């Protein structure tokens, strides 16, 4: 009975509510950032601080950061979870949860290694996991039209290539305080996890273009 309840739980709804709730709470409680933000210097030296890798993905810097991430999650997270349930039955809820959590962790590991000696570096936000959700969705529906800047129509697969290219460039050149590495490795994690769960997805992706 408990197992049935767990595997039928709508994970995207829980993630959405938890992220919005904790982010809003953190806005008016600055000390929460110190306890939940990713601090690579500390995490690298103290294994007991590894939960920061998860908690940092549940809070955001400001309203703009939160709204942008949650809009993306709303449009693609709920759709992807429903799709995984269609493909795999109720266990699709757990697949979605696994993809999201694995992406939260793996998207931050490169940052931890790169910034392990930088005491002043902190990172927060769900962008790595949300990039994983977006790219998993793109593998299923590469020809879906997305809207760049909410206005410019662009096929999902084209957006994906442009996004990866920009992340690679920005991680080396941008000085905007955004953790572009988390975006990049989150997207790659989404692709990898989806391929592991559904090895046929590569063939499906190619077939959308007549290959």
What's this model, at a glance?
By secondary structure, the protein is mainly α. The chain is built from eleven helices and two strands. Strands 1-2 form a two-stranded antiparallel ribbon.
Please describe what this structure looks like.
- The protein has 211 residues and is mainly α.
- The chain has 11 helices and 2 strands, in the order ααααααααββααα.
- The protein has a two-stranded antiparallel sheet.
User: Which blocks of ≥5 consecutive residues have pLDDT under 50?
Assistant: none
The helix-strand sequence is: HHHHHHHHEEHHH
User: Helix share of residues?
Assistant: 55-70%
Q: What is the beta-strand fraction?
A: under 5%
Outline the biggest β-sheet: 2 strands, antiparallel
- What is the terminal-to-terminal distance? 45 Å
Give Rg in angstroms.
Answer: 17 Å
Summed up, the helix count is: 11
The assembly state of the depicted protein chains is single chain
Structure summary, number of beta strands: 2
Tertiary shape? globular
Overall pLDDT: 89
- Helix/strand-derived category reads mainly alpha
